[in-house]
Amino acid sequence: SPGLYIVATPIGNLGDLSPRAADILSRADLVAAEDTRVTIGLLRHIGVKRPMTPYHDHNADHVRPQLIARLATEAIALVSDAGTPLISDPGYKLVRDARAAGHAVVTIPGPCAAVAALTLAGLPTDRFLFAGFLPSKAKARAETIAELGAIRATLILYESGPRLGATLAALAEQLGSRDAAVTREITKKFEEAVTGTLPALATRYADTPPKGEIVIVVAPPGEAPPASAEDADAALAEALTRLP
Ligand code: SAM
């Protein structure tokens, strides 16, 4: 039926395309894709040919009203190159405008590098903050890290290989020796998660930019260390001396 379908696609392993995602993609009247060449490959993989239109940061403002107009009668599937649309990818304004125009919005959830990285890192998962890509300019990056560093949550950042060393160095400088994980090539042949403190990871990747796609996961700020039993006893004894 007509409406906007947000379709998550694999982040490396094509086996992660859900049957429901494949079903929607095979029946959509139109597939709005970040890069149609990438999505053609995916559609070919499932033996499907559908009309496609590019929807990316550079044409979105122009294309969006046309897509919204078509939603009245057509099922439009939104996909990005990999993973979940809208997550460091275009789409939220399309969802906003589709809702405002009273059209159905349906999600077909699936792979997302941020959540996948969190499950690999071995760091607290009860509170996390996804911050996408840090700014590339040093000053803006430092300001963002300072802001994020005060938040009591595990941090999840997207990064590229060439920038990893500089980003880890900046994180280590401002956040100290928090535990962290560098996850790479998730769901692909060379998937890995390298764990360690931020300074150790910064040293490791200082001159050897790794290949592939990367997510950095950083532990929340440490709690004040719990008082030892002796300290607690001494404090209690001292407090008791003050009682009338
Ligand atoms: N929408 C996507 C998602 O749901 O994860 C993210 C798109 S964003 C433009 C691309 C970034 O996601 C990459 O630079 C990398 O940080 C991360 N990423 C995507 N696929 C990945 C993978 N297989 N392994 C590690 N990181 C990945």
TrEMBL record:
EC supergroup of this enzyme: transferase
Catalytic activity, as annotated: cytidine(1402) in 16S rRNA + S-adenosyl-L-methionine = 2'-O-methylcytidine(1402) in 16S rRNA + S-adenosyl-L-homocysteine + H(+)
Organism domain of life: Bacteria
SUPFAM superfamilies the UniProt entry points to: Tetrapyrrole methylase
Domain Tetrapyrrole methylase: 4-201
Enzyme Commission numbers on file: 2.1.1.198
Listed GO MF terms: rRNA (cytosine-2'-O-)-methyltransferase activity
Record bears the keyword Cytoplasm: yes
Alphabetical list of PROSITE patterns matching this protein: RSMI
Record keywords: Cytoplasm, Methyltransferase, rRNA processing, S-adenosyl-L-methionine, Transferase
InterPro entries, A to Z: 4pyrrol_Mease (IPR000878), 4pyrrol_Methylase_sf (IPR035996), 4pyrrole_Mease_sub1 (IPR014777), 4pyrrole_Mease_sub2 (IPR014776), rRNA_ssu_MeTfrase_I (IPR008189), RsmI_HTH (IPR053910), SAM_MeTrfase_RsmI_CS (IPR018063)
GO CC annotations on file: cytoplasm
Principal location: cytoplasm
The keyword Cell inner membrane appears for this protein: no
Compartment(s): Cytoplasm
Role description: Catalyzes the 2'-O-methylation of the ribose of cytidine 1402 (C1402) in 16S rRNA.
UniProt family annotation: Belongs to the methyltransferase superfamily. RsmI family.
NCBIfam families on file: 16S rRNA (cytidine(1402)-2'-O)-methyltransferase
PANTHER family: RIBOSOMAL RNA SMALL SUBUNIT METHYLTRANSFERASE I (PTHR46111:SF1)
Protein name per its UniProtKB record: Ribosomal RNA small subunit methyltransferase I
Originating organism: Sphingomonas dokdonensis
Taxonomic lineage: Bacteria, Pseudomonadati, Pseudomonadota, Alphaproteobacteria, Sphingomonadales
